Amino acid sequence: MNDSTPLLSIRDLRVSYGNIKAVLGISFEVYEGEIVTLIGANGAGKSSTLRAISGMVPYSGSITYRNTDLRKVVSDKIVALGIAQVPEGRGIFGNLTVQENLKLATWQRKDKPEIERDYERIFGIFPRLKERRGQLGGTLSGGEQQMLAVARALLSRSKVMLLDEPSMGLSPVLVREIFNILTEINQAGTTVLLVEQNANMALRIASRGYVLETGNLTLTGTGAELLGNPRVKEAYLGG
Amino acid sequence: MTYLFQQLLNAMQLGSIYALIALGYTMVYGILTMINFAHGDLFMVGAFLCFIAATFLKLPFVPTLLISMIGVALLGVVIERLAYKPLRHAPRVSAVITALGVGLFLENFTLVFSPYPQHVPELIANKTWVIAGVSISSLQIIIILLSIGLMILLDQIVRHTMVGMAMRAISWDKTIVPLMGVPLNLIISITFALGTSLGAAAGTMYSLAFPVIDPYMGIMVGWKAFISAVVGGIGNIRGAMIGGFILGGVEILVAAFMPSTYRDFVAFSLLLVLLIFRPYGILGKPRPQKV
């Protein structure tokens, strides 16, 4: 695996907001076809890492996608390159209908018939979104909003999907449903970078994981290795 | 009764002009939560471009209108890029002060070239019809129909096009919009172009209806249009249209039935009372502030 070139390569990433240092120089990579998870507590720098990759916050260090240095690329062009993000808190436009939320995510695409086919595919994965097509995004439940957020990321035809805490605020049943869908999406060819506080669920589906603690990467391994690691067990899996 | 209908017609004319200008305030507020206090002065620049095109280029109405709208749209986009964009993450009050500064700049820049009031030539042949005692002029018909046409066009753009969808998305949460692959700066520029060109259309029509123009003409009209936008619910496009017609109606009717010096006093008092009962305006909805 490691002899191929990574799809996404993060080198010495540092992110700060004024005097607050959120990420203190981390390096990791994501290879094509993987599910990589960053686990860690609140404030460990997980969201900041994803925001940096999507070009939403200034950073130092380098982020490379294939052979492109993402520092020179603006956020909307990063999406066009193939990196979609399902942001923290889902980022649904509450004043747009479900259909409009989906349509907006096709902004970069010109292939009309393909888009129509993708809608059908997405409504196959999330039948509830089809039922609620005409409803405003703000009227959806938390789980439905999460589905809509994932659906939007799928519609951008991304190669890499970044997900920021998709389990947040969802019931265990819905969390399992979302994670099953993520596994399916991954098997269909999308590489996944998953940021989670719910370490148990994330490590179960992950090919590899990293533990992020107060801005530093402290542990790494396969999903199974980290699940079995006593330190991870104690700190993130409730002993 | 005839007198009332006559005044209602005049109210429609004034109201449609206020509504067009109010749209510019409300669109910019909707996407940037900032009041573009230079907007009234862009209305004035629109009137001056109309004057220039009609007097020096001797153009008829339609090309004059287009020159005014396109010229002011370009100016609006440049102002946003140079003056407001660098302040996008600054406190809102900085942007508002900057907007006031831009307005003063536009007034005084125009004053350099036009220290005296100018007279705008008659671009629309003046015909008047009398229907059931109410006289209606060709200019009034054009102002009312053109304004309503432009408002319907804008409403359709915002509701049914991808750009309009992106504008509405920005008004909800502009940080998420680039994650959809939507170029934020382009949409903001388009919003400024649309809003300011409507202001210019209003400036052109206003200068045909009241053909003596000066660099300060945008101040009072701008304030009234801004108040129209607030009354309708700032950030709400249909609200701005309704607010414009309400303000135009109140002003004309006050002037029609009371001493005309009471006009602004009564109009503003009524609006203050309305805001006590509906602080978010007629169509505005309270929304929790995001942190």
Short overview:
The complex is a heterodimer of chains A (239) and B (291). Chain A has 239 residues and is of the alpha/beta class. In chain A, 38% of the residues lie in helices and 26% in strands.
N-to-C SSE string of chain B, H for helix and E for strand: HHHHEEEHHHEHHH
**Unreliable residue runs of chain B:** none
Between the first and last Cα atoms of chain B, what is the distance in angstroms?
A: 54 Å
Strand proportion of chain A: 25-35%
CATH architecture of chain B: Orthogonal Bundle
Characterize the main sheet of chain A: 6 strands, mixed
Write the layout of secondary structure elements.
The complex is a heterodimer of chains A (239) and B (291).
Chain A: E1 8-17, E2 20-30, E3 35-39, H1 46-53, E4 60-65, E5 68-69, H2 75-81, E6 83-86, H3 98-104, H4 112-125, H5 127-131, H6 142-155, E7 160-164, H7 172-187, E8 191-196, H8 199-205, E9 208-213, E10 216-222, H9 223-228, H10 230-236
Parallel strand pairs in A: 3-8, 3-9, 6-7, 7-8
Antiparallel strand pairs in A: 1-2, 1-4, 4-5, 9-10
Helix pairs in contact in A: 3-6
Chain B: H1 2-32, H2 39-55, H3 61-84, H4 92-113, E1 118-119, E2 128-131, E3 134-137, H5 138-160, H6 162-172, H7 184-209, E4 212-213, H8 217-232, H9 237-257, H10 263-277
Antiparallel strand pairs in B: 1-4, 2-3
Helix pairs in contact in B: 1-5, 1-6, 1-7, 1-8, 1-9, 2-3, 2-4, 2-7, 2-8, 3-7, 5-6, 5-7, 6-7, 8-9, 9-10
Structure description:
- By secondary structure, chain A is of the alpha/beta class.
- Chain A has helices spanning about 45-55, 75-80, 100-105, 110-125, 125-130, 140-155, 170-185, 200-205, 225-230, 230-235; strands at about 10-15, 20-30, 35-40, 60-65, 70, 85, 160-165, 190-195, 210-215, 215-220.
- Chain A has a single domain, classed as P-loop containing nucleotide triphosphate hydrolases (Rossmann fold, 3-Layer(aba) Sandwich).
- Chain A is about 40% helix and about 25% strand.
- Chain B is about 70% helix and about 5% strand.
- Chain B has a single domain, classed as ABC transporter involved in vitamin B12 uptake, BtuC (Orthogonal Bundle).
- With about 290 residues, chain B is mostly helical.
- Chains A and B meet through helix 2 and helix 3 of A and helix 6 of B.
